[in-house]
Amino acid sequence: MTNIIVTKNERETKRVAAMFARSIIKELIFGKKAAVVALSGDLGAGKTAFAQGFAKGLGVKEPVKSPTFVILKKYDISKHKTKTTRYSLLATRFRHFYHLDCYRLKNTQDARSLGLAEILKNPANLVLIEWPERIKNILSKKQTIAVNFSHINETARKISFN
Ligand code: ADP
Ligand code: MG
Is 35 left (phi over 0), alpha (psi -120 to 50) or beta? Predict the structure, then answer.
């Protein structure tokens, strides 16, 4: 089933992303590999904005910047243990949040040199990937939740969850 949401500005996209993060962590309590959220869509469609809201929803305190130039950024989520169920559930599984932007990766070899294969194996990792098409050879469908972004106009974006 596909759910489609239209957002009218960046703030709405961030809010949707934070809600999405909270809803998936409730369902991802167990897993043998990392959990991947794959964000597809054109430049400027709102993937990084979504990543920022998503991280906030997870309880990552550090501001999330676009990783385009660094490709990969790691955030600690192990210290966000609070009394609320949401974070204690999260703490049982995920230790690290990775934000990855594959736009500049040319091939799977580039991804391997980042140590990505290892990152994707670790069930304690929650990995959000922009431009996942670039590394589809090393992503398993089973571990991946896909989200697609498209422009409707200058300020409206369509976000589809599969
Ligand atoms: P991407 O990572 O997909 O290239 P960004 O999130 O970096 O896209 O940029 C999205 C741009 O579009 C930002 O400048 C943002 O302010 C703008 N924008 C306008 N409307 C929206 C919306 N509904 N959702 C997200 N971003 C929006
Ligand atoms: Mg981006």
Answer: beta
- Tokens, residue 95: 């230790």
pLDDT at 85 over 80: no
- Ligand closest to the CA atom of residue 39: 1
**Residues 111-148: tens digit of each pLDDT:** 778 899 999 999 999 999 999 999 988 999 999 999 99
Where does ligand 1 bind, in terms of residues with CB under 6 Å? 7-10, 12-13, 41, 43-49, 66, 130, 155-157
Question: How many beta carbons lie within 10 A of that of residue 160, not counting itself?
Answer: 15
Which tokens hold the place of 137? 């050879």
Torsion, CA 58, CA 63, CA 64, CA 67, rounded to 10: -150
Instruction: Show the domains of the chain with their CATH numbers.
Output: 9-137 (3.40.50.300)
Name the DSSP letter for residue 140. -
Which residues, at least 6 apart from 140, have a Cβ–Cβ distance to it below 8 Å? 33
Using most ligand atoms within 8 A of CB, pick from 6, 13, 14, 16 the residue to mutate for ligand 1: 13
- The pLDDT score that the predictor gives to residue 86 is 54
